[in-house]
Hints:
By secondary structure, the protein is an alpha/beta fold. The protein has 7 helices and 12 strands. Strand 4, helix 2 and strand 5 form a beta-alpha-beta unit.
Amino acid sequence: MNIVVLVKQVPDTAAERTLSGADHTLDREDADLVLDEINERAAEEALTLKETTGAEVTVVSMGPESAREAIRKVLAMGADRGIHICDDRLHGADVVTTARVLATAVRTVRDVDLVLAGNATTDGQSSAVPAVVADLLGLPPLTHARELTVGAGRVRAERETEDGEVTLDAPLPALVSVTEKINEPRYPSFKGIMAAKKKPVETVDLDDLFPDADDTGFRVTGTRVVEAVPRPARIAGTRITDDGSAGRRLVEFLIAQKLV
């Protein structure tokens, strides 16, 4: 069984983020970069399946040179090999381009049975990339899974929604995106960290993945950020002291805000 897990390096959610003045994209030079937490859970699920099925796990990531650290962490957790898509021309890539590049990289892995990914990343939060990758690969997408079972050539996923629980089932090969409820990721052991240094990581660029395309025919993004402003600081709310008129004043406030 061959499993591919898609991961991304993102800014630490606990650290301050700044945007580049040139194009309003994330300033990675000043950011604390980490393996995305939901992608890390997708990696954990892949490694759990490896332990029970003997699968080989390939980790794929698209990003600048620093993204290699995210790949190395998953290798230290137990993955077997990595593919790093590194090309300055992909700076600012949108959902469609990101999915197209990831799908092409997945095709370079032979006989893939299962593709795993986080349902979203903490920087973009589009929740669209896994589904687009599945469409490009012609795989059934089982998205937003909180529980996963693989066996007898099929994959079964449990999804929690606002209306209840949904069971998804599909034949392999398939793509599954997971939520933060799927598991708790393991910590890499010292032995795993040392072993990861010897595991192969292949670096590829656009010319490797799309040898017949030229720069003019590869559109990285169809959008651009023209302006960005910081989120306004939170202001103190209105406190009502009950002197017998609190109920009326509360209703008046809700009416003024068009909430009732």
